[in-house]
Amino acid sequence: MSRLFGPIRQMGYVVRDIESAMRHWIDVCGVGPFFYVDRLPLINFQYQGQSGDPHLSIALANSGDVQVELIQQKDDTPTMYQDFLGRGLEGLQHWSSWPEDFEGYYETALKAGYKVGQEADSPRGRFVYFLNEGHPGTVIEMAALTPERRRIFDGVREAAVNWDGTEPIRREWPG
Q1: Is the pTM of this model over 0.85?
Q2: How confident is the model at residue 126 (pLDDT cuts 50, 70, 90)?
Q3: Does domain 10-162 fall into CATH 3.10.180.10?
Q4: Are 129 and 118 in contact (CB under 8 A)?
Q5: Are the CB atoms for 43 and 122 separated by under 8 Å?
Q6: pLDDT tens sequence across 27-72
Q7: How many Cβ atoms sit within 10 Å of the Cβ of residue 5?
Q8: Torsion of CA 130, 93, 150, 36, to 10 degrees
Q9: C-alpha dihedral over 40, 126, 150, 75, to 10 degrees?
Q10: Where are the domains positioned within the chain?
């Protein structure tokens, strides 16, 4: 557990081909089912203080209590994902915590010297990525644990518990 951000809830992988990445996690790793959204709706996306509207495809699955997130950006809007890929990297880009007191943790992080790399709101709630990466895979994301996010993330986790391999890719959030 992070003493600043709470428990690690998610590992986020930035990939160039989300369909191929899902197949790998399903067929090779045995993780699923994945809940896939082609374009994540974002509100007021900011990358280093600049507005944008990136086309982000995401897929979520769980292995136990840890969520696996796959992210493919399908345009060239400046983002931390583009930065990551532009450095020749692909794979684990961030880990995420989901505090209920998002604003409190956000302010504490800023006071501790963390710098915002990108942030936005969504129908599920706010999220932020901090720039304080020590090495690839250590970007810290925080996502507000709103009732809507909790409902979706609980559904993703519950779907994985006794998953028998059927319907490995689902094109809508659990309901």
Answers
A1: yes
A2: very high
A3: yes
A4: yes
A5: yes
A6: 999 999 999 999 999 999 999 999 999 999 999 999 999 999 999 9
A7: 21
A8: 140
A9: 20
A10: 10-162
